[in-house]
Request: fold
Amino acid sequence: MEPALQGVVQTRADRPEPLLRCGNTNCGGCGMSIGLNLLSHAIADRPIQLVIPACCGIVTAGAFPFSAYGAPTVAATFAAAAAFATGLAHAARINGEKTRVICFAGDGGTYDIGMATLSAAAERNEDILYLCYDNEIYGNTGGQRSSATPMGAATSTTPLGKDVAKKDIIAIMAAHRVPYAATVSLAHLDDAMRKLRFALDQKGFRFLHMLSPCPTGWKSEPADGIELLRLAVRSGLYAVYEVFDGYKTVINVEPEMSDAALERYFAEQGRFRKANLDVAKLREAVRRQWVELRSRVTAG
Ligand SMILES: Cc1ncc(C[n+]2csc(CCOP(=O)(O)OP(=O)(O)O)c2C)c(N)n1
Ligand code: SF4
Reply:
């Protein structure tokens, strides 16, 4: 095991088989694969069921009757993963099972087409863990823009760069007053593992957001995914924080607000090449984002 992982993740012996098996179809360097491997370590021997809507994550499973997932997995419709998970969670409760039901969905299935059922399940405080891996595009169908795509990113439907800002999904989920909502950086293992384990063991609706590098859509080097996440956190672009009961906000990693990190984050991804981004304006947008986030900490 890499020294950096020692003491943070558990060994494979804690889980009879990995959540993501070998032979899956994910691209090399896929952040979603890294997220699934961390989730696998966090789950350890807890009984789980996965619900996955249309997204790269369900293509990962492969063709029935085979599956690359080392756990029972339901393929849900694009719009209704949270509703499928609700049914499974109720069935588990009625049967007296300790199964954690985990929705694992992309940003398209979360921010856009699954939003109605996600909002409904959150409002009812259903006993599910909803984990959105956000690669900021509809990766599975050719890289169209979603409402999670950041300003300036070129996609197959915004070839010159998107001119609308990304939705604030944690604020949306917190506004439902769910017990727990948090962002997870795959580059900050201690914090990521703590949040995954905490969310697995809580009751009620838990929401995790995982920024997920996608070399195919981001036009970045497969080996650079974790470094891009570090740059996103250091620059302040990706805030690492958690919200309890919809109001108590805790910042987990203080950003350096580094301009060099901001510039490198954009320079190392081909999707921003045509955008002609103004670093001063970007810095100002990040600064405003942090003023707002810190005001939520104070208000809580
Ligand atoms: C109702 C409906 N519309 C469109 C599709 C086609 N479709 C399947 S996956 C997908 C994109 C999923 O994007 P996202 O949720 O961001 O996950 P990713 O593919 O990026 O992992 C689309 C548009 C579908 N399956 N169902
Ligand atoms: S398109 Fe992106 S999210 Fe989908 S499998 Fe490839 S790298 Fe992963």
